[in-house]
Write a structure and sequence with these properties.
Structural class: alpha/beta
CATH superfamily of the largest domain: Ribonuclease H-like superfamily/Ribonuclease H
Radius of gyration: 39 Å
Low-confidence stretches: 240-246
CATH topology of the largest domain: Nucleotidyltransferase, domain 5
Shape: extended
Number of helices: 18
CATH class of the largest domain: Alpha Beta
Length: about 500
């Protein structure tokens, strides 16, 4: 007789158990006759289960609730709508958002399994050669594209990424273009962020840094040689088709897109975006730990920082400089775009400094105006305050003036058309916008009671705060000291009684 261990209850044996039990034979008798345990007989005799059918065990409710599944699905659907193959939600990014936005308490692995199923795709792993660096030895740098919404307009920008090779600390900066001034400014800000300069920078063969040749035979651009000489680092350009030579930073480009720029950011300026990115970099430094390393990024960075050599006291000017003449429309041209200046600078020569994301216009060592740099070409950036004096002298053109139509809110334009004084009142309204700001003017207009036709003077009366009157306090009781008038009567010849 075969022992109970390893016994398989097939359909024949199951049939014998059931027939015997239904006919009234006891469990003890069935077990003894068939040579199997009473527990086995009891398991099958009542017909509540069958051989080969696994028992369903009661499990704790899944942390992946319908709400969590819906959130994950929305993330993936948003990725599909954006249509950005390289800027999508990873499982880690979805997990981080679930924790911060829905207070998710489940594990990352649970989220990863669901995301894997929903994406229904597999990305094969690639083998890399493990590399090791000394503290302060090198930074890997690279560029990548990303999409944002800048003041409501969908725009493709460039992201500069740098990573310390020893500690894996990171730096990410967004730029409008991948040009020389952006290339230099990004590295300068990167040195500031890391608190020092390494012995060398590892970079690919992009024309922004390489004048000719490639790899070991690459010759750096003249301006880059000057920049590297000032900050004292060597350039190490990668060989062609050798992405593994800067694999740390190439991974960072993808990581930044999928973790720092998802959902697609909606910002009002490039500087505000870079403030967000810098905050994310600091969070990465304080909380991240690279897989396979015993120490955190923060601990390794504190070690590596000691080996970085100090930043030179003189701050290298990374701007691209031009010296144009102010044109007839009181604008200057820089990088195929126009920027306005006050009309008093008409036909004067000014200095224009173009940085990564801003343009500074200078005359006689004084800064005239600073703009956020325009991307593309054929655009003009106006400031109303540059033309308000001209409009006050020539109000007839106010409603057709580009500096008005392209800078003023539609609500202000509509309000101006309703003013009884026509063009002159519109100019007076614009002067108030320059002096007080458009939002404050619109707020004052909204305070005017219904039924009263707004005029410039009425708007101004609601705009200007009444002068504060200093209250003078008097004592509740006034005491008067009596005066003897006899002396005065005597002097005036009045008889004194």
């Amino acid at each position: 007789m075969q022992g109970e261990k390893g016994m398989v209850v097939g359909m024949s044996l199951y049939s014998q158990i059931r027939e015997a039990y239904v006919s009234g034979e006891s469990i003890r008798s069935i077990a003894k006759r068939l040579g199997i345990s009473r527990q086995t007989v009891k398991k099958y005799c009542e017909g509540t289960t069958m051989p080969g059918v696994r028992k369903d065990y009661l499990r704790a409710p899944s942390v992946i609730t319908p709400e969590i599944e819906k959130f994950i699905r929305i993330c993936l659907e948003n990725d599909k709508e954006e249509g950005l193959k390289k800027q999508t939600h990873t499982a880690k990014r979805i997990y981080d958002r679930l924790v911060s936005e829905l207070s998710f308490t489940g594990s990352y692995s649970a989220v990863r399994r669901v995301v894997h199923v929903m994406k229904a795709q597999y990305i094969p792993a690639q083998a890399d050669m493990p590399l090791e660096y000394d503290p302060g030895d090198a930074i890997q740098i690279d560029w990548g594209e990303a999409t944002i919404y800048l003041r409501g307009e969908r725009k493709v920008i460039q992201i500069f990424c740098g990573r310390l090779c020893y500690s894996c600390d990171i730096f990410v900066m967004a730029c409008l273009n991948q040009n020389a001034e952006s290339f230099l400014e990004a590295q300068q800000r990167m040195f500031d962020h890391f608190g020092g300069v390494p012995r060398r920078l590892i970079f690919d063969n992009g024309k922004v840094g390489v004048k000719e040749g490639f790899g070991l035979h690459a010759v750096a651009q003249d301006y880059y040689r000057m920049f590297s000489a000032h900050y004292v680092f060597a350039t190490d350009f990668c060989n062609i088709a050798s992405g593994n030579e800067k694999g740390l930073v190439e991974n960072l480009v993808g990581y930044s897109r999928n973790n720092f720029l998802v959902p697609v950011p909606r910002v009002e300026s490039m500087e505000s975006l870079n403030e967000q990115l810098l905050e994310r970099c600091l969070q990465y430094r304080s909380s991240h730990k690279v897989q396979g390393r015993s120490q955190s990024v923060c601990d390794m960075y504190l070690t590596e920082k000691i080996y970085l050599h100090p930043i030179a006291p003189y701050r290298y000017d990374t701007a691209r400089v031009s010296v144009p003449t102010v044109g007839d429309y009181s604008t200057v041209r820089f990088d195929r775009n126009e920027y306005s200046v006050p009309v008093r600078f008409l036909r004067k020569s000014v200095t224009v400094k173009g940085y990564a994301n801003r343009v500074v216009i200078i005359c006689d060592a004084d800064t005239i105006v600073t703009y956020e740099r325009l991307s593309g070409q054929g655009k003009t950036a106006y400031k109303l305050e540059h033309y308000i004096g001209l409009l006050e002298r020539k109000p007839r053109s106010v409603f057709q003036a580009k500096p008005v139509r392209q800078t003023i809110k539609k609500e202000i334009l509509e309000l101006g058309k309703q003013l009884p004084g026509g063009n002159k009142d519109m100019v007076r309204l614009l002067r108030m916008c320059v002096d007080y700001g458009e939002n404050r003017v619109l707020f004052a207009k909204g305070r005017i009671p219904a039924g009263i036709t707004p005029t410039v003077d009425i708007i101004r009366s609601y705009l200007e705060e009444p002068e504060k009157i200093t209250a003078i306090s008097f004592p509740s009781e006034v005491h008067i000291t009596p005066t003897n008038l006899a002396y005065y009567d005597e002097k005036c010849g009045v008889a004194v009684r």
